[in-house]
Specification:
Shape: globular
Number of domains: 2
CATH class of the largest domain: Alpha Beta
Low-confidence stretches: 1-23, 25-44
Largest sheet: 6 strands, mixed
CATH topology of the largest domain: D-Maltodextrin-Binding Protein, domain 2
CATH architecture of the largest domain: 3-Layer(aba) Sandwich
Length: 303
């Protein structure tokens, strides 16, 4: 904090005696200018809050600290990441306005698109797209499709996940079945990384996982993914987007959008993108997520 009033003048003037009026004025203006430059964020400017779903890998705590610092430096305000164990918890925070932004799956975004605004979509392998992977243990060399796992134990990521529930459920509905009918038992792992771990560890005979997560794990933990085998990949869908809630005003949206779009323009930002296994962020039309909406309607129509 900086002194005010006469104390500020004394600190600025130091030991100068009988200064000229103009010199004193310039000294005072200099002090005021310096105080503006280094003044901390005021209490009235609350933190910018970003909700994160289990699309983030579980061991990225140190990375999130670095990313938060990067965003704070460029936004000039405090940033808070709020991680939750399920998509539903983050969705609730978003709909209640308890967070300003969220990195969500395209499925809940489509469901709540009237209340959530599309801000940006990540670029993966040069495109704003990803796929759902069907995986089995590496020792299983026979399974060729989801239908081959009838009567088995299957791991879903989250009931609000496109790649980790909606897409495989859609495939089964198209075959006249459902997860409840097709498998002996199903369970939710509440995270895509945990689906890979469950299948690799033999807790499930198959699982549905975000392809981006599996690919990223194959880079940082190849021993884990080597214990699984990709049976099939879905058609491409809109990558999990970053959305704005009703709590985020226009200024906050514009500022965060500009910072995220500019990450590829400086060395620190590029390094963070590399850690995320992303190429950057881009602006897309909401109809990129219409394919997920079609799956949702199809599944709902078969219930």
């Amino acid at each position: 904090m900086f002194p005010t009033g006469n104390a500020a003048e004394r600190e600025c003037y130091g030991s100068v005696t009988r200064p000229k009026k103009r010199a004193r004025l310039w000294a005072l203006l200099l002090c005021l200018a310096l105080s503006v430059v280094v003044q901390p964020v005021t209490a009235s400017e609350r933190p910018l809050r970003i909700g994160l779903t289990p699309v983030m890998l579980e061991d990225q705590v140190r990375f999130l600290d670095r990313w938060r610092g990067y965003l704070e430096q460029r936004l000039g305000r405090e940033v808070q990441f709020l991680r939750r164990n399920s998509y539903g918890e983050v969705i609730e925070l978003a709909l209640r306005g308890r967070i300003d932004f969220a990195w969500l799956c395209g499925f809940p975004y489509y469901q709540h698109r009237d209340a959530l605004d599309l801000l940006l979509t990540p670029l993966y392998n040069g495109e704003p797209l990803y796929r759902s992977y069907l995986i089995v243990p590496a020792s299983d060399l026979e399974t060729g499709s989801l239908l081959d796992l009838q009567g088995g134990i299957f791991a879903y990521a989250d009931p609000n996940s496109n790649s980790g529930w909606l897409y495989p459920e859609y495939v089964l509905r198209q075959a006249g079945s459902s997860g409840e009918q097709h498998f002996q038992r199903t369970f939710y792992t509440w995270g895509h990384q945990r689906v890979v771990e469950a299948v690799a560890g033999g807790l499930a005979e198959g699982g549905a996982v975000d392809g981006y997560v599996w690919d990223t794990l194959s880079r940082i933990d190849p021993e884990l993914t080597a214990r699984t085998r990709i049976v099939s990949r879905s058609e491409p869908f809109g990558f999990p987007p970053i959305v704005a809630t009703s709590a985020a005003d226009t200024s906050m949206r514009d500022d965060l959008r500009a910072v995220l779009l500019g990450m590829g323009d400086d060395p620190v930002g590029r390094e963070l993108l590399e850690r995320l296994n992303l190429d950057g962020f881009t602006q897309v039309n909401s109809d990129l997520y219409d394919a997920i909406g079609a799956l949702s309607r199809e599944v709902a129509g078969h219930r």
